[in-house]
Each structure stands twice: as C-alpha cells, then as structure tokens.
C-alpha cells in the first residue's frame, strides 16, 4: 500500500514539473516573439534598407535586464545588442548597441534622440499595444 501511495505522489510531482516547464517554455517563446516584433518595428522605421532580422541569443544580465543579440539583412556584420530594461517594463524601447561603421551607416538619423522608439511607433500607427508587450519569463536559460 505504501509503495502505491509513493508511486502516486511521484507521478503527480512529475506531471506538475512537466506542466510548469512547458508553461515556462511557452512564456519564454512568447516574450522573444513580442520583443522581435518590437525590434522589427524599430528597424523598419529607422533603417534605410531593412529586409530581415535574426535573433541569435537572448540572455538575462546579473542586474535582471534582458539582452537580445542578433543581426539584420542576413549579414552578420550588421549585428546588434538590444536592451530590455526594468525602466521600460522589460520591453525593448530603442536602447540598442551596434557598430557605427557597419550597422550605423544604415540608420536614417545619426542622433539616437531623433530615432523612432517602438512605443512612439505603436502610438503613431494606432497599433494594438497588447500585441507588442509581454512579461518576461522567470528564468531565461531553459
């Protein structure tokens, strides 16, 4: 009888762990897709020639912010690092680092203050803000 109870408890715990893991993976994928949408808006409005974007890595910093690494136009020379910080509710809002000699030449404006931010684009185009915001997952590494 004790073996059956123990096996039942182990089975329930295993099912719970699997459900939590699947839920977490779905939340992580949704967060990455939403941030990708925000990045695409940013690049469409701020670059002279924009065709596509590839996200290569998403990671959480020790301070709790998120970094999104990738490149555009299928050219790894046009790489960037986008920041999703606490100040902007962990949403990408125009804070980006890139090489001025490569990707920097594609920007329409030289000054960062003159570039369109995703929140400004969403307001201007009257887009549904809920489609461009998502809460980050608790853990990013799995």
Structure description:
- The protein has 142 residues and is α+β, with helices and mostly antiparallel strands.
- The protein has a single domain (1-131), classed as Nuclear Transport Factor 2, Chain: A (Roll).
- 37% of the residues lie in helices and 17% in strands.
- A hairpin with a 5-residue loop joins strand 1 (53-60) and strand 2 (66-72).
- The longest helix has 45 residues, at 2-46.
- The chain is elongated and about 75 Å long.
- The mean pLDDT is 91.
Please give a quick description of this structure.
By secondary structure, the protein is an alpha+beta fold.
End-to-end CA span: 37 Å
How much helicity do the residues have? 25-40%
- Which fold name fills CATH's third level, the topology? Nuclear Transport Factor 2, Chain: A
Query: What is the CATH domain class?
Result: Alpha Beta
The overall pLDDT average reads 91
Radius of gyration: 20 Å
Shape field: elongated
- What is the level-2 CATH architecture name? Roll
Q: Which structural category do the helix and sheet elements fall into? A: alpha+beta
Which key features would you list for this structure?
Nuclear Transport Factor 2, Chain: A; 142 residues; 37% helix
């Amino acid at each position: 009888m004790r073996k059956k109870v123990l096996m039942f408890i182990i089975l329930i715990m295993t099912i719970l762990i699997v459900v939590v893991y699947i839920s977490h993976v779905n939340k992580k994928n949704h967060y990455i897709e939403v941030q990708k949408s925000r990045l695409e808006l940013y690049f469409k409005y701020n670059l002279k020639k924009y065709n596509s974007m590839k996200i290569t890595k998403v990671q959480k910093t020790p301070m709790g912010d998120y970094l999104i690494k990738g490149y555009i136009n299928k050219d790894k020379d046009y790489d960037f690092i986008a920041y999703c910080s606490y100040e902007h509710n962990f949403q990408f809002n125009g804070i980006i680092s890139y090489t001025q000699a490569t990707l920097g030449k594609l920007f329409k404006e030289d000054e960062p203050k003159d570039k369109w931010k995703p929140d400004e684009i969403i307001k201007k185009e009257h887009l549904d803000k809920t489609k461009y915001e998502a809460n980050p997952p608790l853990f990013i590494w799995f």
